[in-house]
Amino acid sequence: xxxxxxxxxxxxxxxxxxxxxxxxxxxxxxxxxxxxxxxxxxxxxxxxxxxxxxxxxxxxxxxxxxxxxxxxxxxxxxxxxxxxxxxxxxxxxxxxxxxxxxxxxxxxxxxxxxxxxxxxxxxxxxxxxxxxxxxxxxxxxxxxxxxxxxxxxxxxxxxxxxxxxxxxxxxxxxxxxxxxxxxxxxxxxxxxxxxxxxxxxxxxxxxxxxxxxxxxxxxxxxxxxxxxxxxxxxxxxxxxxxxxxxxxxxxxxxxxxxxxxxxxxxxxxxxxxxxxxxxxxxxxxxxxxxxxxxxxxxxxxxxxxxxxxxxxxxxxxxxxxxxxxxxxxxxxxxxxxxxxxxxxxxxxxxxxxxxxxxxxxxxxxxxxxxxxxxxxxxxxxxxxxxxxxxxxxxxxxxxxxxxxxxxxxxxxxxxxxxxxxxxxxxxxxxxxxxxxxxxxxxxxxxxxxxxxxxxxxxxxxxxxxxxxxxxx
Amino acid sequence: xxxxxxxxxxxxxxxxxxxxxxxxxxxxxxxxxxxxxxxxxxxxxxxxxxxxxxxxxxxxxxxxxxxxxxxxxxxxxxxxxxxxxxxxxxxxxxxxxxxxxxxxxxxxxxxxxxxxxxxxxxxxxxxxxxxxxxxxxxxxxxxxxxxxxxxxxxxxxxxxxxxxxxxxxxxxxxxxxxxxxxxxxxxxxxxxxxxxxxxxxxxxxxxxxxxxxxxxxxxxxxxxxxxxxxxxxxxxxxxxxxxxxxxxxxxxxxxx
Lengths: 472, 256
Known about the structure:
Number of strands of chain B: 8
Strand order of the largest sheet of chain B: 1-3-4-2-5-6-8
Largest sheet of chain A: 2 strands, antiparallel
Low-confidence stretches of chain A: 382-393
Mean pLDDT of chain A: 81
Strand order of the largest sheet of chain A: 2-3
Shape of chain A: globular
Distance between the termini of chain A: 88 Å
Helix content of chain A: over 70%
Oligomer: heterodimer
């Protein structure tokens, strides 16, 4: 017998003699020693007013009555600041990148003798889609991510999880799912990675499958644009901003409700089981380090997410330009595809253009809006005064946009259904790839795409049906 | 640290160590440093401070979801530093605790830097004592000293150091406070200039002492390189399947 086997055998027989719970006594001694050590070398002076202040704050922010309203108003304010604050810089960036730099580039390329088709593909297709994504996404992200990181560093995120824990538990999910969903507001791929904090594999899968219901940053431009152009326009001008922010907020809340609902459904069907208990430490509130917060949120989140969006948008820009400029049997590829999707789209209250845009925009949600605008010009043939040409993304102001979309057959119903479909459709390809990596399973990945897509179809169809029934 | 007794580093004239942050370039190194501690005590902040990396930090437990590695160069010696997930204990079965325990046992770090929250030392000391059972080469970093001061908490780092037999440094990592002292402590333990000498109190109850003594003696005889035979003996008595497997696979003898 080898010495190792002998040791193992000895250990085995000693275990039987000792009985089962001796380790408890060791643990008790360790914790006794820990408290002795602490009391010998740590002295507390007075009660500390900061402690009282923190307790008071927690009484409001985590109370059963005021906790959830406080949370909702905090996020509504963050949203409102993001929408209101990003208007002006977005317009300025668009002015610079799209209105000024684009014609300059195009003119110089042609002057230098570049073939027209190559200039179209590179500058009208690839450059413009990248420029559009930067001007639409950079300002809201540069406002949202720092605000979000401030809340995170302050210690508010665990309180969100605490407030939502009971709801998630009722849905058969894990309370920490609230944390991963909040991360999903920034980026779903990041939210999916964050589900690693959930120990139970069953609950972690639920959290992964439902993270897409968190309205990610890439989808906000769609929401904000629809809310501003169609819903805000219905309200009196003074309230337009509030109505727009309010409707985006409602869509985000609806996303959370869908997350609860589908978690409940999953935990009663394919992922049966009890919710596991866990202890959640509420860390002390800490004053965030402003400069570091700005730095990390801008460098680690904003720039990385933006870079990813540009990387996906540039080739997509080429695809859009090609689909609009390559003809088959007398019509462009895009024309054929849109025609084929139109009947289904009508049932859902959308248009063929929107569905085709979602097919092209699988790599990144950010480019849905530019794609829709470009395709609309192509199909309706609406000449817009300063539109630079067929198959080109462009930036237009809100009222031009409204006129153009209405003449392409859009109604308020189209805008509402688009907002809903933007919430309820398959995750972008990066998120799908992340889900595949995290679960190591293609079937779960497929389900994570099919579940929101099916819901989106049902909800949009139902809304369109009811709307037409009452309006028509 | 205005309220604490001055540490030796503040009073002695020794020049401060020369630090070069190397980010994530950890291909070649002279010493390995493990970074352990409870969740949400600022481990990632300490990690960033040492490596110059910007591992994401946030004020919620469980934020570091995977092991991060980085490197720094101190007095022309290279250190690889591994940021372990935050845990309250090393005895549990959650993936986080397993990752931390495995690394401390089999990664053989030259120095284990335990980061503790100055505002709740008692809970943090449980993990510290458990780590001291595995390895004596520990540096205790009492972080969030700024917050402790705001709460009116005074910590005697020198007294702790004397009693624990390991270097104890107070820091406020968010402000970079105490970095120089922390670096010299890590260097001294890594190079052997500071010999950690824990006056180990007896955690093993009398009824167990015999069994643990016999087993650890055998373990020590079979695996001369094993640093912590009594801890391994305790785990064996508990029937920890991972330790049993490690013995069978010869993971303890491989390091000789």
